[in-house]
Description:
Pfam families: DUF4397
InterPro entries: DUF4397
Protein name: DUF4397 domain-containing protein
Number of domains: 1
Amino acid sequence: MSIASGAVFAQGEHADDERPADDDAATDSDDTAAAVRIAHFSPDAPNVDVLVDGEQVLADVSYGTISPYLELEPGTYTVAIAAADDPETVAFEGEVDVGEGLYTVAAIGELGAETFRPEVLVDADPLPEDAADESAFVRVAHFSPDAPAVDVYADDAPLVEDVSFGDVSDYLAVPAGEYALSIRPAGEETEVASFDVSLESETVYTGYAIGYLEPPEGVTDRDFTVELAVDGPEEDQPPADAPGDGNGESEPADGGEADDQKGAAEEQKRAANDTKQTAGATTDDC
């Protein structure tokens, strides 16, 4: 994946931005700016380019990738998602409204089933007002196209229940610490997947359930998993790169300095390892 900064999206005070930091810049949903990241969670879609108002802002985004937050002014934008290096093959084009704050635009569904669409999530807002000190905050997004509605348990206690494909739960406050998560079909006791996660205090997370519970024949690297991403400004809480095909290597979208972009991406990936949990435990047929 590579990033192009320009008139529409501008890189802010993030790890991959080489410009001097501006103390007055908006990095945490202040009075003037929004921050948006893109996530590619469509398991049958190819690598994609993302265009905003006709300008390419992300290039060669692979399945499982979560981009850094990119700053822009609040407003209405025309967002297009096209096959990488093939602007004529457009999977989606439509208007997206963003206000002040933090957002994730997730590409979900399947191209083959004609369910591909962007899902816009507001990040880190609202949070529970009655949370105890040192709490962590977590929500669950069900973006696995072939999984049924699910219940999510933490250490055998229900965390969220009856979450269907495309649904995103509210944020919950939980004590910081280590948890064993289990995924079960809604209302059933049978566990279809389990994962270990670590939640830090005063940190906000989204757990994205992605991939195929039962991959189509011949499909690899698209198994059901849960990606735990930190929601918030990158200088404090770097967003996670998810697995799948990984970020790979690509030319910068503006045709600029590939080595600098690659080095920045590697630095960000190392930082993300402290905040991302890659779930890769057992998965059984539902």
